[in-house]
Structure formats: structure tokens, C-alpha cells
Amino acid sequence: MPLARRHLLAAMAGTLAATAMIRRSAASGRHDDWPREVTDALGRRVRIPRPPTRIVPVFSSNTEIVAALGGAERIVAIDGLTTYPPDVLDRPRIGNRIGFSPDIIARLGADLVILTPARHAAVQLLRPMSLAGIPLLVLEHPTLARILANIGFIGRAIGSEREARALTRTIEDELAALAKRFASQPPKRVYFETGAAGRAGFHSVRPGTYTDDILRHAGGLNVFGNRMNLSQVSGEAVFRADPDHILVAGNKADVAALLKRPHWNGIPAVTAGRVNAIPRGQVLIPGPRVVEGVRSVARALHTDPVSAS
User: Fold this and answer.
1) Domain limits of the chain?
2) Region 3-167: CATH code
3) Are 7 and 221 in contact (CB under 8 A)?
4) pTM
5) Burial of 181 (0-12, 13-18, 19+ CB in 10 A)
6) Short-list 108, 63, 101, 54, CA closest to 82
């Protein structure tokens, strides 16, 4: 079996297993079996007494999943850094980088809080929500397979199993189609920059993450895939890696800034014009838009057009 085909089939394996599990568990559930108990990422058994109607998702990923499952109208508040989808941006904000307010959540009459353990959100909200009797779920989205599994998990938690099955099936089918398209091609070697730290270096995608999964599903290969715990790299390391393509999580201005860096015009990928911006929301927010990220990355890496549909 060609190396490229093994590369893509391996990328699909975890995703397919996760979605199969989602379908089996969701198919066995009934829409009237409330109260429900679910086990979150911290191993906590959380009881949800009735279908939630006043949901507070903390962080963009959880907000986007709830909205994608048809729950936008049930979202009563979001965190201060969420910018998508547009139809929930008028909701009250319960906090930002500094912290989160359990008082606002309680005053809004929330009946479910969904968060990710980042920026101390779990530490700040777990005990207050427990004292207030408000169910709180903690999710982690480390890989693409876990994102799909969490779509099913949230679907179960809010009573939207049918929508979760449809969404995961759509994403799975798209990933399978892309894997088939690129199976016969050698993977493109990519430096994928997610941020710049000035003289301190640059941030690249770490292996074993959902952004790395996005790259692999799009027929790419992370040139820093052997750096398991380090995301920061130097310009010299990028030169030595000599990637076929450079991707920047950002916009055209971020690409322009990269092209102005001293001596980066000596990298063959730069000289050949193989530097592209990928919208940050598609590759750095672990929600349903990751499939758009796969399409965007695939269009940047391959001369064969990839449909935007």
C-alpha cells in the first residue's frame, strides 16, 4: 500500500471509530428519557433533569456546537471572546480572559453550563454551579475524533441526538471524500504557523492535536510532527525543515507580515508563492467548522480544486 494512502487511512481511523460509537449510542436513546445522566471529561456523572432551555456555553467551540445542533435560541449567554455564529452575539457576556461570573449565570436562570477547562473556567465555575444546582459539563477537544464525539455528547445532553447524528455524518462523509481524493498523492510537507512571538520565535501546530488532524485529512504532513510537547519554533528551524508549503492561521495581513521577515524570502516555498492564509476560526476553534478548515487547507495545498460546498 502506498505511503500516502496509509497516511490518510490512519488519519481517518480514529474519526470513523468515534462516529460509529456516537451513532450506536444516539440510536439507542429516546427523546423522552429524562432525567439523563452523562459522564463528562473529568469523569463526573452529571444529572440533567429535563431538556435544557437556557444554555450557557463557555468558549467558542462549545457555543458553535450547540448552535450547529439547532440550539442557538436556547443559548442565553456566551463568553466575551466568542465571535461566531452571528445570531448569538447579542447575548449577555459572562466573562472573558480575566474570569467568569457565576452570579450572571445564575441570574439568567441557566439550566445547563458547558465549558472547556481553559482560562481557569472549570476552577471558577464548578463549585458555584454545583451549589446553585445548575448542571455543568466539562468537555475537552484535543483531537478531531474527540470533536466529533463531543458533538454526539452535547446532542445527548441537550436532547438533539438527531441533529448530532446528521452533523457528524456530514463531517465524516466530507472527510472520507477528501481522503479518497488524496489517497494516491504523496502528502505535502507543511509548516503551519498558528502565531508569532516576535524574536522569541513562532508557534507551529503540535502533533496529536485537532489542527494537526485537519492538516493530515487535507493531505498534508506537519514538518514539525516529531515535536510532541513543543509548539514554538525558530525561523532557523523553518529554514532547515524546507517545507513544500507554508500555511498561516490568520488572514492576508498575517501572510504579508510573514513575507516581510528578514531572509524568509530564501525559503523555496516563499519564493514559489506557496504561502496561504487559513481563517483562524476554521483551524483553531475545535467545533463544527473544522471541516471547513480541512477544505481550506486542501485548496491551499493541491492544484486540483477542492469544492467549497
Assistant:
1) 3-167, 187-301
2) 3.40.50.1980
3) yes
4) 0.87
5) middle
6) 63
Q: Which residues pair with 254 in a beta bridge?
A: none
161-174 pLDDT per residue, tens = 999 999 999 999 99
C-alpha to C-alpha distance for 201 and 34, rounded to whole angstroms: 51
CB 202 within 8 A of CB 193: yes
Q: How far apart are CA 169 and CA 20, in angstroms?
A: 10
Alpha-carbon torsion angle 134, 140, 146, 148, nearest 10: 40
Q: What is the DSSP string of 250-308?
A: S-HHHHHHHHTSTTGGGSHHHHTT-EEEE-HHHHSS-STTHHHHHHHHHHHH-SS----
Give the fold, CATH level 3, of 187-301.
Answer: Rossmann fold (3.40.50)
pLDDT, position 226: 87
Identify the pLDDT of residue 200: 67
Check residues 119 and 30 and name the one with the higher pLDDT.
119
